Amino acid sequence: MSKPVKKTAWWNNAHNRAIMFQVLLAAGVVLFFFYIGKNALHNLEQRGITTGFNFLKQKAGFGIIQHLIPYDESNTYGRTFIVGLLNTILVSVLGIICATILGFLVGVSRLSSNWLISKIAAVYIEIFRNLPLLLQIFFWYFAVLRTLPSARNSLHVGNWAFLNIRGIYVPRPVYEPGFGWVVTAFCISLVLIFILRSWAKKRQEQTGQQFPVFLTSLGLLICLPGIVYFATSTPLHWEMPKLKGFNFRGGLTIIPELAALLLALTIYTASLIAEIVRSGILSVSHGQTEAAHALGLRPTKTLQLVIIPQAMRVIIPQMTSQYLNLVKNSSLATAIGYPDLVSVFAGTTLNQAGQAIEIIAMTMGVYLTLSLSISFLMNWYNARSMLKER
Amino acid sequence: MKKMSFIMVAAFLMISASLAAAGTLQDVQKRGQLVCGVSTGLPGFSATDEKGVWKGLDVDGCKAVAAAVLGDASKIKYVPLNSKERFTALQSGEIDVLVRGTTWTLHRDTALGLNFAGTNYYDGQGFMVRKSLGIKSAKELDGASFCIDAGTTTELNLADYFTEHKMKYDAVVFDTHDGTLQGFEAGRCDCLTSDQSQLYGLRTHLKDPSSAVVLPDVISKEPLGPVVRQGDDEWFNIVRWTFFAMLNAEEMGVTSANVDSMKSSKKPAIRRLLGLEGDKGTSLHLADDWSYQVIKQVGNYGEIFERNVGMSSPLKIARGLNALWNNGGIQYAPPMH
C-alpha cells in the first residue's frame, strides 16, 4: 500500500535546488575569470605589451650554471623552463629523501631513554625549527662558504675528490658499451630479492621458521652485478677532476648553491618531521609496547613490527604537508643563486622576455602540479597503510 | 615564493584594474606625490645614506621630475625594485616613472609597453676581479665564474662575449646587488660583471676596496635612462624634457647657485629655459617655472653628476661619454624653443 505522494514544484525540491545553485555558482566563477582574462588581454594590447606563448620558441641567450639536460646560450626560453623545472625537482626530491631520513633519526632519538641523545635531539629541533628558513639558507651559503679554501688550495681526499669554495668535485663515471649487462644483472638481483622475500614471508607464516632475508639480499645485490662487472672486463672508468686555470675541469661538480640549499632545506624540514615522528610514536599507547615485550619481542622488533606501523597512520598525513612545504620552500633558492625554476624562468627569462602573466602562470602551474602529485602519492600511500577495518 | 609575490601582485593588478593608459600627470598632481622606482641600493645612483635618505644620480632624476610637476623635489615616494620586478611594477601602474639604471634596448622599448625618455648615463659592461689573480684583460677570463644580477642585459652580453671569443664561463645569478657582491666577496666567483659605473659603486662597499680591480675592457653599450609607460605621451614629454632642461642648463652655465641671478639675464635662450618667455610650461601642461624649479631644487646635469658619481663623490668616475657634446662627450639636448 503506498501513500499518495504530495506533489511539489520542481524548484522546491531540495535536490534540484542544490543543483541549481551549484550551476549558478559555477557559471559565476567562469564568467568572472572570462571577464578578468578579457580585461587583461585588452589592457595588454592597449599598452602595446606582447602576449602569447611564442616567446618560448625564442633564443634565450644566457647561461645557466647547472643543467641536468644539455643546455647552452643558443637554446630557447622553452628549454630554460625545462632546465629550471628539473633543477627544482632535483633539489626537492633530494631534500625530501634526506629530510625524511634525518627527521626519523632525530625523532626516534628524541624519545631515546639515553639522556644525552634525547637532549641533543631536543636542542637540534628547537634551534632549527624556530629560525626562519631564509636565514638558514644564507647561513649555510655565505657563512659556511667563506670558510672554504680557494680552488688552488682545495681540501682533497686522495687525488679524486676536492672541496673548495666553487663546489664539490668528484670523479664522473664514464660508461662503456658492456655496462648494460651490469645494469641488467642489478635488475635481475632486485627481482630475485623480491621473490626471496615473499617466499620467506610465506614460509614464516606457515612454519614459523625465519630466513636471514636482509643478509642474503645484500649479498645478492653486491655479488651478482659484481661478477658480471668483472666478467665483461670492467666496462666503467672514472673521469677525474683536474685543476686547470681558474678551476677544476672534468669530473662531476656539485655547486655550492645546491649544497647549501639542500642542507638548509633538509635540516629545517627534518626538525619539523622529527616532531611529527615523535607525536606519531607517542600516539601508540604504551600498553602496546608492554604487550609486545610480554610476547618476547626484542625492542628493535617491537619498534619495527608494532609501534612504527601504527604510528605511520598518524605520521603520513602530516608528512605530506611537510613535503609540500619543502617543494615550495625550494623557491627561496633565488636568494643564493641556485638556478631553480623561480630563479631561471620566473627570474631571468621573465625579465628578458618581459611576459609576466604567462610566465608567472606557468610557474604557478608547475608548483600546483608538483604539489598535487605529491599529495596524490601520499594519499595513496596513506590509504594503503591505514588501519584495515574488517 | 616570497620573491615572487611582488610580481604576482603586480601581474594581478594588471589583470584586474581597468587601467587608463593616459593621465599619469593628473594622477601625480592629484596624489601630490611622485612614485618613483629606484634600485634596491646602488651607491652613486640610488641608495639610502646613514639617515635613510635616498641619494644618487637616478634619485636626482626622480627629484627633477617631482620638482617640474609638483614644484617640490621632496614629494616623492621611492619604491626600491630589483631588476626582475622593475618592468612589471611600471607596467602595472605601481610606479609613475622608473629611474633605475635600465638599459635601453629594442625589445624593452617595443614589446614591453614601455618608452625610454632619454639617456641619463651612458654606460658599458665591465669586469671587476680580485687583484690577487693578476689579470689584466677580459680575454684571460676563460673558465672563470661570474657573479651577476638576475634579469639584466649583463647576462646576455656575457653569453655573447664568451661565445664570440670561444671561451667557457659559469654564471652565478643573484637577485640583488647585495647578494652579487657578497658572492664575489666570499670568493664564490672570480669576477663580478655589471655596468662599469655599478662596479665602481659596488667596489666602495667591499670590506677592502683595494683588493679588487676594474678591468679596462668594456664589452657592451649600456645607455641607461628613465622609463615610462607607453601610450601616455604627455607624461613621456614631461620626463624627457625635464632631463633635457638639466642638460641645457649645464650647457648655458645655469646652476642651482646662480639660477636666481640668471633670471635677469638678457640671453633669449636662458630666458626661455627659465620659463620667462616663449612657450613656458603651456605645451607640457606644467607651471611656467617648471624648469626653474628643477634647476633650483636639484641642479643642472653637471652638478648632479659631480655630486653623485663624479670626482667629488667616492666613486670618482670621469665624465667620459657623459660630458656634454661640446666637451668631448655625447650628452646632447635639443634646444628649448
Q: What does this 3D model show about the protein?
A:
The complex is a heterodimer of chains A (390) and B (337). Chain A has 390 residues and is of the alpha+beta class. Helices cover 66% and strands 7% of the residues of chain A. The relative contact order of chain A is 0.13. Chain B is of the alpha/beta class and 337 residues long. Chain B has 2 domains: 2-122 and 223-318, Periplasmic binding protein-like II (D-Maltodextrin-Binding Protein, domain 2, 3-Layer(aba) Sandwich); 125-220, D-Maltodextrin-Binding Protein, domain 2 (3-Layer(aba) Sandwich). In chain B, the strands form 3 sheets. In chain B, strands 1, 4, 5, 6, 7 and 13 form a 6-stranded mixed sheet that branches. Mean pLDDT of chain B is 89; it is low at 17-21.
Can you lay out the helices and strands and say which pair or pack?
The complex is a heterodimer of chains A (390) and B (337).
Chain A: H1 14-47, H2 77-110, H3 115-129, H4 133-147, E1 155-157, E2 161-164, E3 167-170, E4 172-175, H5 179-207, H6 213-231, E5 236-239, E6 242-244, E7 247-249, E8 252-254, H7 256-282, H8 286-294, H9 299-329, H10 341-353, H11 356-385
Antiparallel strand pairs in A: 1-2, 2-3, 3-8, 4-5, 6-7
Helix pairs in contact in A: 2-3, 2-7, 2-10, 3-7, 4-7, 5-6, 7-9, 8-9, 9-11, 10-11
Chain B: H1 2-16, H2 24-31, E1 34-38, E2 47-48, E3 54-55, H3 57-70, E4 76-80, H4 86-91, E5 97-103, H5 106-111, E6 114-116, E7 121-123, E8 125-130, E9 145-149, H6 153-164, E10 170-174, H7 177-186, E11 191-195, H8 196-203, E12 212-214, E13 222-229, H9 233-252, H10 259-262, H11 268-273, H12 290-297, H13 301-308
Parallel strand pairs in B: 1-4, 1-5, 9-10, 9-11
Antiparallel strand pairs in B: 2-3, 5-13, 6-13, 7-13, 8-11, 8-12
Helix pairs in contact in B: 3-9, 3-12, 9-12
